[in-house]
Amino acid sequence: MNGFFLDFEKPILELEKKIKEMKEFSTGESVELSKEIAQLEKRLTELQRETYSKLTRWQRVRLARHPQRPLSSDYIKLMVSDFVELHGDRYFADDKAVLAGFGYLEGRKLLIVGQQKGHDTKERQYRNFGMCHPEGYRKALRLMKLAGRFGIPILVLIDTPGAYPGIGAEERGQAEAIARNLREMTQLPVPIIIAIIGEGASGGALGIGIGDVILMLENTWYSVISPEGCAAILWKDEAGDKYETAAEALKVTAADLLELRVIDRVVPEPPGGAHRNQRGAAEILKKEILHFVDELANVRPQDLIARRIKKFRNMGVFHSESN
Amino acid sequence: MEWFKKARVEIDSTNKKEIPDGLWTKCPHCGEIIYVKELEKEHWVCKNCSYHFRLKSDDYIKMILDDGRLEEHDADLVSGDPLKFKDSKRYPARIRQAQEKTGLTEAVRVGIGKIDGRTVSFAVMDFRFIGGSMGSVVGEKIARAIERSLEGKMPLVIISTSGGARMQEGILSLLQMAKTSALLSLLQKTNIPYISVLTNPTTAGVMASYASLGDIIIAEPKALLGFAGQRVIQQTIKQELPEGFQTSEFFLEHGFVDLISPRKDLKKNLSLLLGYLSND
Ligand SMILES: [Zn+2]
């Protein structure tokens, strides 16, 4: 492991480094040393389990933003064959924050629409950090409608810090673009599988987030507002010491959303998180997606749509006070 | 998205001023001192500068529906507290406080009324109730209003004002956008018209769902409309926002509303458009 690590990852990384050094040193000849290495490896597994089972919500938010975390393009590379990328909304531009195209997942045709953040500074700027403009939502909808016409199931990969708040975005109807997607995605006659692979920030995420199955990877978040935004407004937080509080209050993790029955499945990540083993993470996610693609393959379009409407129709918690 | 910033600013700075209880009040826009009785007659529009004071849901009901009558439905629905949310106050206490302040149960009122004799499914939001924010109850009441339209083949009229989704209900408030839009997809397949009226302010989660999905979209003059809050935009782009940014006039100019209607003509315009979009 090189490069960036989070504070709570440090003990794990240090132990890993020690094991690696010992292995290089021993070259398998000393029984004593092999024993010690085996012991350390056992401790590493325990330490990983311990650390990752009791992460706070804010720590999960930070893992979701880990710079080495796999992005939409990584999952596409690792899961999909013969990917053909398609561009543009046919109105205004090609939004680079959205990566979309056709591909095969173990022989099944899919349209894949993903938000793409970028791996390094240059790509991040090019991709606008995964923040869509209206043309991103319109590009996604254009291609999803195309998939709908040809009976091709849709996989959506969500990873965004929010829809872009800018002058051009407002001029070109950010609100209208998101609203339209919410309505139109409801009526698409093909299965839609949503997977939140990193950040799911409010309307920016929901704008491509209507589907039949909603999956969240273990170390991701999805919320009406970011913990930072919420802390600034409700706790008047300037110094950043209320992020933890806001994340706890908002209940933003995959486990929370499963409990609130907003998502269907939490997809586990390899030990230490998806960024420690991208291939492993993609393998697990692929199996989940295949399962649902096959399960939904024989549902009639009108039933898919009716179920989809019912799914969202039933969301919310309230009661009647008259009785 | 920091959808709430704008709403908070509005609540804190202008809401109180706009509900005068004395005989005279000052126009927050041009500073003119106006006789309140006079203002009432003018539908709370400043004669000097045509500034539109913010209205209560009651005022819209009186102004638009025949005999000022709404057969109200679902007023008994109150929010749960799924997140056990607490900031400076617990969420249920915040709801109670808003209820006491406004005499309303939630930020939207729905039901059936008539516009020039034509029966409509009607919804009107109220900014005084936690900034017109949308939680589960607002989403549910709008959903039921859409369903009433579908079942009764009645036109749908929604008058919006909102700072966005209600943070205290977390992800569930966000999903009310999906819920209301999903039901509007059914209306879209019929010939039942939906007219959306945007009043000051309509932003964020409400603007990015049902408020933007009208077959016809009418805005009141000079209302603040948009997706992102202005402070967030400013912090992101680090430059001054242009004059008139995110107003009704800006939205008209960029093609996102059908017309801007002064308040005194709102009922007339609704009535005319409902007439054009029905076969009777
Ligand atoms: Zn004035």
Can you put this structure into words, describing what you see?
The complex is a heterodimer of chains A (323) and B (280). Helix content of chain A is 48%, strand content 16%. Chain A is α/β, with parallel strands linked by helices and 323 residues long. Chain A has two domains: 48 residues; 251 residues, 2-enoyl-CoA Hydratase, Chain A, domain 1. In chain A, a hairpin with a 2-residue loop joins strand 2 and strand 3. The longest helix of chain A is centred in the N-terminal third of the chain and has 23 residues. Chain A is globular and about 65 Å long. Chain B folds into two domains: 234 residues, 2-enoyl-CoA Hydratase, Chain A, domain 1, CATH 3.90.226; 34 residues, no CATH class. In chain B, the strands form two sheets. In chain B, strands 3, 5, 6, 7, 8, 9, 10 and 11 form an eight-stranded mixed beta sheet that branches. Chain B contains ten helices and eleven strands. Chain B is 36% helix and 19% strand. The longest helix of chain B has 18 residues. Chain B is α/β, with parallel strands linked by helices and 280 residues long. Strand 9 of chain A pairs antiparallel with strand 4 of chain B. Bound molecules: zinc ion. Zinc ion (ZN) binds next to loops of chain B.
Distance between the termini of chain A: 60 Å
| Inertia-based shape of chain B | globular
CATH topology of the largest domain in chain B: 2-enoyl-CoA Hydratase, Chain A, domain 1
Give a short account of the largest sheet of chain A. 8 strands, mixed
Segments of chain A where pLDDT lies below 50 for 5+ residues? Answer: none
State the order of secondary-structure elements of chain B, H for helix, E for strand.
Answer: HEEHHEEHEEHEHEHEEHHEH
- The appropriate CATH architecture of the largest domain in chain B is Alpha-Beta Complex
The CATH C-level class name of the largest domain in chain A: Alpha Beta
Strand content of chain B: 15-25%
- Tally of contiguous helical segments of chain A: 14
Compute the gyration radius of chain B: what is it?
18 Å
| Helical stretch tally of chain B | 10
User: Which compounds are bound in this model?
Assistant: zinc ion
Q: Report low-confidence residues of chain B grouped into runs of 5 or more.
A: 1-17
Report mean pLDDT of chain A, rounded to a whole number.
Answer: 94
